[in-house]
Write a structure and sequence with these properties.
Length: 257
């Protein structure tokens, strides 16, 4: 986690606004996430979290404001472009194919083609290369899966999250956005995901974490940004606030000092 004065900003949002017809989903949202930092994005249903995440992921384009990546303004026209620039998003449904194995899911839509020119022209994949890289990525996260060739549908919730996180960091992501990563997990699996988040942040990855689990947030995050009715109303260090303080900010019962 970020603790030094030399921290660098990986992701910065400046005065982001987004409307859908007459509904203004985001209004003047500004905050930043430093390299190696874990920042919680909190808010009640309808606060604008999903819209903001979709803007960062390239699914929506803001009507106003700027998104900066490593201090450079970027315009994200698509999820593919966001990924190419170093922003990986792990959505709640994990976007995996249950019938595929681990390496196939980690390289989904990014498959490595055979080095043989003829086989490459025929669209043959280099399965061995993909498996080696997948194993390396999971090893980097200290993840131990009982059967590497198992279909994803046979894995536990925590193991699936490990694959999704490994897929995100496998591509050299500067920023990983995680949408409710422990929502459907038990206590032990949630703890494993927390450790994975701490591990990738220790390797310099900036993490933006969307969660309703205040315990998870307090155990994992450095700061919390709170959205209320589309506005960023608080940006607080977790060490300075209690769980009750966060709930009050989320519900609008309190205003950040």
């Amino acid at each position: 986690m970020v603790r030094t004065q030399l921290a660098q900003v990986a992701l910065e949002l400046r005065h982001i606004g987004k409307s859908f017809g007459a509904v203004q989903a985001l209004k003047d949202v500004s905050f930043s996430v430093q390299k190696g930092e874990v920042v919680a994005l909190l808010g009640d249903n309808g606060a604008g979290k999903t819209t903001l995440v979709r803007c960062i992921a390239g699914l929506h384009q803001p009507d106003q404001g700027q998104i900066l990546l490593n201090n450079q303004p970027v315009i994200l026209h698509s999820p593919q472009q966001a990924r190419q620039l170093g922003i990986e998003t792990v959505f709640q449904d994990l976007a995996m194919v249950p019938e595929f194995d681990i390496s196939a899911n980690m390289f989904l839509n990014r498959e490595i083609l055979s080095k043989n020119p003829l086989l490459r022209a025929l669209g043959w994949l280099d399965q061995a290369a993909m498996e080696r890289q997948a194993r390396k990525s999971l090893h980097r996260l200290n993840s131990r899966l009982p059967d590497f060739h198992a279909k994803v549908q046979s894995l536990s919730g925590g193991q699936r999250q490990a694959v999704a996180i490994a897929r995100a960091v496998n591509w050299g992501a500067d920023v990983v956005v995680m949408d409710e990563p422990t929502a459907a997990l038990g206590v032990e699996q949630s703890a494993q995901v927390n450790e994975l988040i701490k591990l990738i942040s220790s390797q310099g990855v900036a993490v933006l974490l969307i969660s309703h689990n205040m315990q998870h947030v307090q155990e994992t995050c450095d700061r919390a940004v709170v959205l209320y009715q589309g506005r960023s109303v608080a940006d607080v260090a977790l060490s300075d606030v209690s769980k009750e303080d966060l709930v009050a900010l989320i519900t609008g019962a309190a205003v950040a000092a």
